[in-house]
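tool_log.txt
---
The assistant was asked to compare two proteins side by side. It first ran the structure predictor on the initial sequence, then on the second. Raw inputs and outputs are pasted verbatim so the downstream comparison step can read them without reformatting.
(1)
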Amino acid sequence: MIKSSLKQKSLVVALMLTSFTAGLNLQPLIAKAEGSGFGIFLKAYDILNSEYIGNIDNEKLVQGAIRGMMESTGDPYTRYMDPKAYQGMKEERVGNFSGIGIQIGVRKNMFNGHEMTNLTVISPLEDTPAWKAGILAGDIILEIDGKTTNNVAIDQAVNMIKGLKGTPVKLKIYRESTKKMFDSQIVRDSIVTKIVKSRMLENHIGYVRLSTFMSNDAPKEVKAAIDKLKSKSMKALVFDLRGNPGGLLPNAVSIGSMFVPKGPIVQIVDKEGKKEYLNATGELEVPMNLPVVLLVDEGSASASEIVSGALKDNKRATLIGTKTFGKGLVQTVHELDDGSGMAITTNKYLTSNGIDINKKGIEPNIFVELPKNMVPESPDSSVVSKNDTQLRRALSFLKEKLAKKDTPKKEG
């Protein structure tokens, strides 16, 4: 029993993620855990260690227990990241890692006529191996290198997909739009994301594409792109958030503030229903009299939807494209002592007008689909591809706005 008690104490310390000095009496913690029903878990742990014929890897056991706690919430965004997955997430913030370039999550989809929860592509990152291979937002990943993704945690799936540059990974994909299943073998590469692309298109219409809000440099790069276009006498702007899976909340507020001069960019609601208004910073970059089109699609999620909601609610931009992803939840990330991490859903967000878009998405003002199996294009010159029906519609819309603006008013 002394040996069992010591094991229990060790596990409680690990699971509660609390540091104790040597000699601290843990009995009150043990008693509290047992009194709350946690004692059943401790008993199961004791039986496993005492009777299992093989060796027990306590590190894996603790990681599995934490992962299980996260999954028991039923919230796919509340998740555990083992040290490798957590390190990968930190690398994404600086925009340099090795893999195929997709953001993945767990969501409910229609599969063979039935609603199921699947590992799903939120969005491929532009110019990455996955993007070039034609992987689309909404694709369901059924297998990774022949292994089923059923009951695979997100951090485990990330570890399976990422790998050394030059090595292949084979994905079995189901695409609901075509009702087809296919294999895609993609060679991993260094993912150095150019998060902002900008061009001056025809009729002095500026174009800025932001691929992610995850990078710490996102606001600075968007500002620089807008300033450069203004220096070239920009008369209107297309801001492209298609396929942008989101990222850091402060970045969304900063970038939203470049278009909206005052008032809330987003409303944050905590577990008790208390609201906090994150207001515009006052750092307006796009003049209020300059027409703006915001391009969105089903890959526009999270921080992209915060900005989309703010611009739509304030009638600061016309949204063109398809309905957005529908992720209205905010996660707080905690780093643990072993280098792993936890992302916990701590808030939900509402648009600046108080609209809840979680699992609903944001409807565009003008609905335009891309041709099937096409990914959004980013023009390399002033010429826009005929296949990018959404961007072409944005240009025609803005040309009409500019023509009306330039038409002399008759005096009567």
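(2)
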Amino acid sequence: MAKREYSFYPGCSSQKGASSSNYLISVQTMCEELEVQLNEIPDWNCCAASIGYAGGGELPRLTLSARNIALSEQHHPGQDIVATCAACWLSTREAAERLHEDQSLLAECNTALAEAGLKLRNETPIKHMAEVLIEDLGYEALKARVKKPLEGIKIAGYVGCQTNRPFGIAGESYENPKYLDKLVETLGGDSIPDYEKKVQCCGGALAFSEPEKSQEMVKGIIEAAYDHGADLIVTPCPVCQMNVEVYQDQINQTYGTKFQMPVVYYSTLMAVAYGRSAKDAALNGQIIPAKALDALAAK
């Protein structure tokens, strides 16, 4: 019997065959070890994080996230909503707060939702999985499950933008959040507290429209990790993970660099540290192999 249950919003990028499907696998493995049960919201939809600002207006954008919240309240009453995608979490939490503050907008939203037989009560906390781990479970509980400490692996904690502003983890600095550093240390790895690019934007919004600008930003993120002797980068954001990992070949061609820096999710680190296999940790989903983690998982 799971000790904790959450209403789970996986988001588009975690679906099978999508860009961060490996994230979902490692999260499920991590949650199995932590006795956390994720109850997927039935018939969930896109949060509109990308297209919602491009057109369509404010009400449709907010209503898309509101529908997910209303479905969660209907099917999983009393359970906090947890998202693994930073953009999904940010969009859903923004919608909840905006609709809480603006009752006329909430009324319009519920008029739209009524067409689908739904009503938003908007009483449910919206959490990122990192909040669940750190604020609900705590570092000591996370440490207690470690079977294979990440000894000798030096890891740069790359928080990025969306899990840092405007909400972030309770008590953390916006300029220098330390929860990934603490998590790395909790798992027995070597953190890099003075990694100066931990909140640098990866340029995700520019990756297709102005790739040269995005890739210049990514270059700085990777270069700083190398400068600190990192073996790999860890992040809580699927957009950050993808951008910082998959464009390294293009960056190498443009700048004459030789980057081959693995970029993994915190859940991947945890799955390995908890003694699970490389497959369970979804290490086979890496574009750039995380050889240090592969070797540890194989022991």
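---
observation on (2): The domain at 4-129 is CATH 1.20.1050.140 (Glutathione S-transferase Yfyf (Class Pi); Chain A, domain 2). The chain has two domains: 4-129, 147-298.
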